[in-house]
Specification:
Blueprint lengths: L2 H4 L9 H25 L5 H13 L3 E2 H7 L7 H10 L3 E5 L7 E5 L1 H11 L2 H5 L7 H14 L4
Antiparallel strand pairs: 1-3, 2-3
Helix pairs in contact: 3-5
Length: 151
Amino acid sequence: MGIEEDIQQRKDFRSEFHKASVNIIYSANWILEKVKEFVSHEDITPQQYNILRILRGSQVPISTLQIRERMLDKMSDTSRLVERLVKKELAIKKISTVDKRLVDVSISEKGLALLERLDQKNHEIDSITDTLTLAEALIMNELLDKMRGSL
């Protein structure tokens, strides 16, 4: 099934470029729904999952501003998301020793354990794109990077 059928498009797209944009938006939302299903068993959102992975990857406490800069979803309310992670005991907040106006955030042992459980099921996330060959995935990555001007 193509994008036309998926979105029940009756008329042709203005151009292949327009079709590509619609297809990317539709596909991104489709992937996000799959990720929501994947993390819902741990009672977290995809944005919270993203923050936990950022915190684990940083290996040192970082500010909410640094978290926001690294997030996939730049529209997220990072402070609110961090507060929820702290409330669930998945993250730890402390006043910065460098600048008392800032808060440093790190992942807790409970947060690390949650990510470890999800890491054991990474094949489920990877299966989202398992209809692609390795060569096709490489091409897609290159094209998406090129589109965003990252090449």
